[in-house]
Amino acid sequence: MSQMVLCFVTSVSSWCPTPPSRQSETKFTQQTNKFWEFEEQSNTWVEINLPFDLMSCINDSCSKVGSIENMGQKDDESPALEQQQNITDRDETKEDYGPVLPLRRRISLTRMSEASVWVTGQSGSIYERFWNGVKWVIAPHELPNPTGQAVSVLIINQTILAVSEGGLLYQVALRKFQWKDCHNPPDTKIAFIVDQEAYRKNIIFVVGQNGRLYQYNRITELWHKHYQSPHLVLSRSPGTAIRPSVLSLAGSIFMISDNGGLVEYQWDSLDGWEWVEHGTPYRDVLLVGAPGPCFDDTQLFVIGSDGQVYRRHWDRRTWKWTCHGFPHSEPSSIEEDQRLKGNKNCATDDDDNVANHKNEAHYPDGYSRNCNEKLAELRRSEGGAGWEWARIIGTPTSLCSTSYWTAVAT
């Protein structure tokens, strides 16, 4: 399947310089018969019929580089008959038909260059997919034994970092291609990397398995534990860093607490480090996943447990919540009604208490049922006055529900 996905990348990256030599390409075996391709005309994902030829196109010249075979086809059975039988079987068991690819936590993807992509596999192994000047190949980069499996991998300033399942941090220099053990905080193991050196150069912020915040200095190779009140426990998810400028030391890291609230860890030259709890949009709506992107250093997007998108923004010297709902694929009249409902202010904060919420939640029951795990685009309206849903992009399997988003946060 990786060959099919990266086939498009080949056509646009053939000019890339050849990376340093790697290990020989690892051979993989096909494990499933379920593959999809994105159909641009209908803007949907379509399951392909097997066997399927993998094509590589460079400068309008296409050639076959491989194929996906039907694993369940018998020797005395024709491909057309087998395909028809598969369709019939799916129709008969439609109620039990679910996604083939399981939802797993051990998954990460990061790009080093136009010719190199690093991923963690289902087994916890780390692989690099790179262009060797002729074709796309795969090179394994296992963590040192007996550290176990990798949870995530990321790249910062030409340095590759990885977190093992045992809670240890590793880094590798590109010239040596050897993993270096950065250990872990003295009193806990690492649960997740919060900030990837976006807030402080050479400083990596992580969350321990105890829900506390730590930082690792890549220069001194020392761990430091930040002060945190006993009742504040952070969730195991990434954060979003906000800085006025690259040269400024002031700024904030936004994270999600273990009880589903938005938390800010800010620093300025006068007061130093300070925790600010922003709470939730409504009392019965928790935040799930990780904080989304930040715009203008004053606007942050998050997802609620009701499946709606919320924006935390600075307005007239106070923080406010605004609900943007979720995208609709209904007729225009319903979309207009949803647009009017989606841009409402949710809760405002007093100057004395940033986490004080005045309003209760009042949602139609249909909101949570309309979540369908599709990729949607929320963009600024013309003139930059507000935000509006632009389009919806389908996925191979769309089985999202409110319980799915809740599971992401647990």
UniProtKB/TrEMBL annotation:
Region (Disordered): 68-95
Top-level lineage group: Eukaryota
Protein name: Uncharacterized protein
Species: Ensete ventricosum
Lineage per the UniProt record: Eukaryota, Viridiplantae, Streptophyta, Embryophyta, Tracheophyta
